[in-house]
UniProtKB/TrEMBL annotation:
Residues 58-294 form the AB hydrolase-1 domain. InterPro entries: AB_hydrolase_1, AB_hydrolase_fold, Meta-cleavage_hydrolase. It holds the Pfam family Abhydrolase_1. It comes from the Eukaryota. Gene3D superfamilies: alpha/beta hydrolase (3.40.50.1820). This is AB hydrolase-1 domain-containing protein. It comes from Pyrus ussuriensis x Pyrus communis.
Length: 308
């Protein structure tokens, strides 16, 4: 393991935290229910009352995908959207410092935890944006609390996945177990994940850097995260097991070259979620368009969220 002063990940983490703090956010922790579940999140700094108590400033929750903790996935969006929204960026249970003593491991439980967090911080209504696994959580939030969730953004998230989609992904990755892709433990596995998730080839990344990423961002709570993968309620059947959101405005944003959830899944998802659903495809990006082309991604989402 690289010492702190030689670790690219540790040094970059300082910069990312400063970006969040510079956007008016601070790290906070909430006990949700009888100390069983603890959720860590970035939210409006309570000391900056002009940000936390402006009734005209809407709230937006950003829900990360399966992988590193939230701050690593949403930096560009936090900086872009913070002037327009009160931003909340939770670490889902078993990511970052969020944890639980509950045996629950479903994405439905994750959605319930986020809903309780928002209730505890006193936010009655909010929009939500989730990427990949976070899109599953965002979907369940909108389905279970339609009166609280205003607009929904689902980014690169195969909410409509079938059992066969899971098998096809493993075949594309040339792996036997999903945890070898989503929870890489070797440089070779991480390189495979990155090349599926990004449109540009990343074969030139040195192994010492990949190993540093694994040690700092993927090694924590591995057992519990494997249980989360096994606990997914979506994708268990041969047909999509989701309900429409007929009265909810939904924006789907997808990378044209997504190899985790291929583009045809986005087209089908648009039809399944209801008549108020829009689809935007970003060219020359794969599974993380918010990272690969943040300017276009952010402008698409802002236009949608700010359209009265």
């Amino acid at each position: 393991m690289l010492p702190f002063f030689l670790s690219p990940v540790s040094l970059y983490a300082i910069y990312v935290r400063r970006c969040f703090a510079g956007s008016g956010l601070s790290q906070q922790t909430l006990q949700l229910n009888n100390d069983q579940t603890t959720l860590h999140f970035w939210g409006p700094n309570p000391k900056l009352s002009n940000q936390t108590q402006n009734p005209e400033k809407p709230s937006l929750v950003l829900i990360h995908g399966f992988g590193p903790a939230a701050m690593w996935q949403w930096r560009n969006q936090v900086q872009f959207f913070s002037p327009h929204f009160n931003i909340y960026v939770p670490n889902l249970v078993f990511f970052g410092n969020s944890t639980t003593a509950s045996p629950e491991r479903t994405e439905v439980f994750q959605a319930s935890s986020v809903a309780k967090m928002m209730e505890k911080v006193g936010v009655e209504r909010f929009s939500v944006m989730g990427t990949s696994y976070g899109g599953f959580v965002a979907y369940h939030l909108a389905r279970m609390w339609p009166e609280r969730v205003e607009k929904v953004v689902i980014a690169s998230s195969g909410v409509n996945m079938r059992r066969g989609d899971h098998e096809a992904l493993l075949k594309r990755a040339k792996l036997e177990k999903i945890e070898d892709l989503m929870l890489p433990s070797t440089a070779a596995q991480l390189n495979k994940l990155l090349n599926l998730a990004m449109a540009r080839r990343l074969d030139i990344i040195p192994d010492f850097f990949l190993s540093d990423i694994i040690q700092k961002l993927y090694s924590d709570k591995r057992k519990e995260k494997m249980e989360l993968l096994k606990g997914l309620t979506l994708g268990r059947e041969d047909t999509p097991n989701i309900s429409p959101l007929p009265n909810k405005e939904v924006l789907i944003v997808w990378g044209e070259k997504d190899q985790i959830f291929p583009l045809e899944m986005a087209t089908e998802l648009k039809e399944l979620l209801g008549p108020k659903t829009k689809l935007e495809v970003i060219k020359n990006t794969s599974h993380v368009p918010q990272v690969e082309n943040p300017a276009q991604f952010n402008n698409i989402v802002k236009s949608y969220l700010c359209d009265s």
